[in-house]
Design brief:
The complex is a heterodimer of chains A (366) and B (456). By secondary structure, chain A is mainly β. In chain A, 13% of the residues lie in helices and 36% in strands. Chain A contains five helices and 25 strands. In chain A, the strands form six sheets. In chain A, strands 20-21-22-23-25-24 form a six-stranded antiparallel β-sheet, with no helix packed on it. In chain A, a hairpin with a 5-residue loop joins strand 16 and strand 17. Chain A is elongated. Chain A starts with 15 loop residues before the first strand and ends with a helix. By secondary structure, chain B is α/β, with parallel strands linked by helices. Chain B has two domains: 156 residues, 3-Layer(aba) Sandwich (Cytidine Deaminase, domain 2); 268 residues, NAD(P)-binding Rossmann-like Domain (Rossmann fold), CATH 3.40.50.720. In chain B, 29% of the residues lie in helices and 24% in strands. Chain B contains twelve helices and 21 strands. In chain B, the strands form four sheets. A nine-stranded mixed β-sheet of chain B has the order 9-8-7-6-2-3-1-10-11. In chain B, strands 14-13-12-15-16-19-20-21 form an eight-stranded mixed β-sheet, sandwiched between helices. In chain B, strand 8 and strand 9 form a beta hairpin. In chain B, helix 5 runs parallel beside helix 7, helix 5 packs across helix 12 and helix 10 packs across helix 11. Chain B starts with 5 loop residues before the first strand and ends in a 29-residue tail after the last strand. The chains are: A mainly beta (366), B alpha/beta (456). Chain B: It holds the Pfam family ThiF. Chain B: This is ThiF family adenylyltransferase. Chain B: InterPro entries: ThiF_NAD_FAD-bd (IPR000594), Ubiquitin-activating_enz (IPR035985).
């Protein structure tokens, strides 16, 4: 290809400057007294000449390498045009997804391999090197085909993964905003969180909602969330719940915590909204979680403050009061019927809360 | 002493494998096992899923050669990669050649390497004989190492050792060969009190190679009437029960056989120590411990023998009289009916027991209010009943490993005896309703056993 468009503002018949590198790939500015140099002239201008058959490759901005024959005029657009001078004494062989290709130079870029093999944009190019971890090859990455054992490229579908708390999310892009990652994992970014980015072997880094996480970071592990408001040092750290429970609670928007109190184990949800018709619009909701949960059932539920109906009437089977962490809770003796016994494989905090909501609604939907 | 490395295959998977690998035409056939890992220190691979390679898809099948399409490898890789499951390629040797041939070696050199290239886990290959015997080997850095043991826990517990021939018959029960094989097997005993101590004593005297005892409690004077090997001095200084067991074990078996774990089985470390064993003997009086044993049995493919004793009483004209004197032994194998299926515990009973142990006042009140059905109190049992039940439990383990019954073992999923009625009843495995949602061989998945309380 020859280019007649006068990009840039070079006066004709004058010296031009281009970037040339030899096999060391150190690009240096080199002047050539010819605005339309041929491959041979560029090779001659290179400070390091290979022993045999110099061979010139034009290094385009997107990473593609274009061979320039000795007699061919190189298109020059700009002082930053880059050329690699290598040797054409033999062809190098490379494989992409098992297909074999020959390339006339010692170096090749990711972009050129893509062009050679016609790789779709949504696939990622990988290089497999013996005795080393496989690496991702970007468009502008140069691969030295003379290194022993370098030849096998393959493609993989590009999806990037990261854990948010204990939920793995996938992204089609190599970077993702913390906010989007949280949304994908079902966490409400509007809730006040401390967010930490954890990378293997590095101290955790606190990040903001608009921080761009580079999912290509080596050893990237997870985004960890801690609620900003820790009440009495007991936010969610008294004991663990099932993964499905924690994910459900995280995306519910409630403030919740697990509390150990005199040998009993409680999940407490603040500001649990009630249907209209009670003496309060919201309560603190407590569920007792046995240590053998989910094998053991969750039974009944407890609210603070004590509820009456809005008309002042008492509610049946709620007479027993207990204290959790010094706060008085009202026990609602509501149990599963024989028809729907607890099933450890299916039942959890979420399914129990549907029974809780049913029990609350029944009192006010007379 | 290092423990034998093992591949554990549930009886159902083993039966499916045998049916597929020996279709009756005398030609080789192939299948793939996806295996998880037991979470302890010992190498125990747990067969979680069977992927048969359809006979019709194989390019070649002869009596001594098979060639099958690699896309089934990809299938295995797709299914196993997320959890890092080990892929074991199994094929049959219809001629009964109980060793890997040079063709097997050359084939592994390519396929196992491809597996390691896909993702890093212990991958390997195995061969099956017409008898059902299996030899398996795993690769690390291109070097194959035979697994010492392939064990199939079902109605009978089948053991195939790499250093024995292909017609492996179980040793005859109650012989020195039995004792020799016991020395290569290990048992977890949960509880070291009334029924646990005679159980530990028997297992040690029977020559089992490793006995892990899990018990958090210490010796008291009230224990002296029923815990073997306890002394007045132990009660005075409140010596932990497992330390009493250790002292006794070392006095006749030497060091390194009994492993004391001074914890509750509801403790992560105790579960991890137990996960290295082959069998569980559950000698406890709580439902929560039986629940953990049940979960371990399914997750780590360990047969369980659960025992219980009870002496119900009744009031007759203002006098307490014995209603019965009973013992129960349940044998549970992975893939069969569980203790939960058999109603040994329920979600309601577990919750009631949690209250009883952690909030006794509330428990009493709930019983009074009728929210909790009165539980059968396990009365303080007596040594003669304990020992009878413990002996029945240990004989049950031997009967499964070294079959000696006149009738098939499947008839004895539960043994219940009444000393008052002088009766012994047996319930067959088939009589129990099987829950179909038990997931087997979950292995080292976290949280351990799916219990948040056991999470790392």
């Amino acid at each position: 290809m020859t280019s007649q468009n006068a990009a840039g503002n070079r006066p004709a018949n004058s010296t031009i400057t281009i970037q040339i590198a030899g096999l060391d790939l150190n690009f240096k500015a080199v002047s050539i007294v010819d605005p339309t140099p041929t491959g041979a002239q560029i090779a001659a201008a290179a400070e390091v000449l290979p022993d045999n058959d110099p061979f010139v490759l034009r290094f385009l901005d997107d990473g593609e390498l274009v061979p320039i024959l000795a007699s061919e005029v190189a298109p020059i657009d700009d002082v930053n045009d880059r050329f690699v001078v290598t040797s054409a004494d033999r062809a190098f062989r490379l494989k992409v997804d098992g297909e074999q290709y020959d390339w006339p130079a010692q170096y090749v870029t990711g972009k050129t391999v893509r062009k050679l093999a016609g790789i779709a944009n949504d696939l990622q190019l990988m290089l497999s090197v013996e005795n080393e971890p496989d690496t991702v090859i970007g468009n502008r990455d140069l691969v030295d085909l003379a290194v022993a054992g370098v030849e096998r490229f393959y493609t993989v579908h590009e999806t990037w993964k990261i854990k948010v708390q204990d939920t793995v999310i996938q992204s089609d892009l190599p970077t993702i905003k913390v906010r989007d990652a949280m949304n994908k994992a079902g966490f409400d970014p509007a809730q006040p969180w401390h967010i930490f980015l954890k990378v293997a072997g590095q101290p955790k880094q606190e990040v903001g909602l608009d921080f761009d996480v580079d999912l290509r970071t080596h050893g990237i592990e997870k985004l960890r969330l801690t609620p900003r408001d820790v009440n009495n040092g007991e936010a969610g750290n008294g004991f663990r719940l099932l993964g499905v429970d924690e994910a459900f609670l995280a995306q519910s928007g409630w403030r919740w915590r697990t509390v150990l109190d005199q040998g009993r184990r409680w999940l407490i949800i603040d500001d649990y909204r009630l249907p209209p018709g009670f003496s309060s619009t919201a309560v603190a909701m407590a569920l007792e979680i046995p240590n053998t949960y989910p094998g053991a059932q969750i039974d009944m539920f407890y609210v603070a403050p004590v509820l009456l109906l809005a008309n002042g009437n008492r509610i049946g089977a709620t007479e027993t009061l207990i204290t959790i962490g010094g706060v008085t809770y009202q026990r609602w003796s509501r149990h599963r019927g024989q028809a729907s016994p607890w099933n450890p494989k299916i039942d959890n905090v979420r399914t129990h809360l549907t029974l809780v909501d049913g029990a609350l609604s029944r009192e006010v939907n007379q | 002493m290092t423990q034998p490395s093992a591949l554990v295959i549930p009886a159902g998977v083993h039966a499916g494998l045998k049916a597929h690998l020996f279709p009756g035409d005398g030609c080789e056939a192939a299948a793939i096992l996806l295996c998880s890992r037991s979470p302890g220190v010992r190498k125990r691979l747990l067969a979680q899923r069977l992927i048969p390679v359809p006979h019709g898809d194989c390019a070649t099948r002869t009596p001594d050669y098979i060639s099958w399409p690699g896309r089934y490898l990809e299938d295995a890789i797709d299914r196993g990669e997320d959890e890092g499951l080990s892929v074991v390629l199994v094929h049959s040797h219809p001629g009964g050649f109980f060793a890997f041939s040079h063709v097997d070696n050359e084939s592994d050199a390519v396929t196992v390497r491809a597996l390691h290239a896909a993702y890093e886990a212990d991958h390997g290959s195995a061969i099956m004989m017409p008898s059902g015997a299996i030899r398996a080997r795993m690769y690390r850095d291109g070097i194959a190492t035979d697994l010492d043991l392939v064990i199939v826990p079902g109605d009978d517990i089948l053991t195939y050792w790499a250093d024995r021939d292909e017609n492996q018959r179980a040793p005859v029960a109650f012989t020195s060969e039995m004792t020799a094989q016991n020395s290569r097997l290990s048992v977890l005993v949960i509880g070291a009190s009334g029924t646990g101590s005679p159980t530990i004593e028997q297992l040690l005297r029977l020559g089992f190679g490793r006995v892990v005892g899990v018990e958090y409690d210490f010796t008291e004077f009230k224990n002296l009437n029923r815990i073997l090997n306890t002394t007045i001095a132990d009660a005075k200084t409140e010596v932990p029960k497992v330390q009493v067991m250790l002292r006794a074990a070392e006095s006749h078996r030497g060091q390194g056989v009994f492993v004391p774990v001074e914890r509750s089985i509801l403790d992560r470390e105790a579960v991890l120590a137990g996960a290295d064993c082959d069998f569980i003997l559950c000698c406890v009086d709580t439902l929560e411990a039986r629940y953990i044993a049940d979960l371990m049995g399914s997750a780590f493919l360990m047969p369980i023998i659960d025992l219980g004793v009870v002496i119900p009483t009744r009031q007759a004209s203002a006098k307490t009289v014995i209603a019965d004197v009973c013992g129960r032994v349940d044998y549970v194998y992975p893939g069969g009916s569980t203790l939960a299926d058999r109603g040994v515990y329920t979600p309601e009973a577990l919750e009631a027991e949690y209250l009883k142990l952690n909030a006794p006042d509330v428990h009493r009140e709930k019983v009074k209010e009728g929210y909790i059905k009165g539980m059968v109190e396990e009365a303080p049992s007596v040594i003669s009943l304990n020992m009878r039940t413990s002996a029945a439990a240990v004989n049950e383990l031997l009967a499964r490993l070294y079959p000696f019954r006149h009738e098939h073992n499947s008839g004895y999923a539960r043994t219940f005896f009444s000393l008052a009625a002088a009766e012994e009843d047996h319930t067959a495995e088939g009589k129990f309703k099987r829950g179909d949602d038990v997931e087997l061989a979950t292995g080292d998945r976290e949280p351990l056993l799916g219990l948040p309380a056991l999470g790392a």
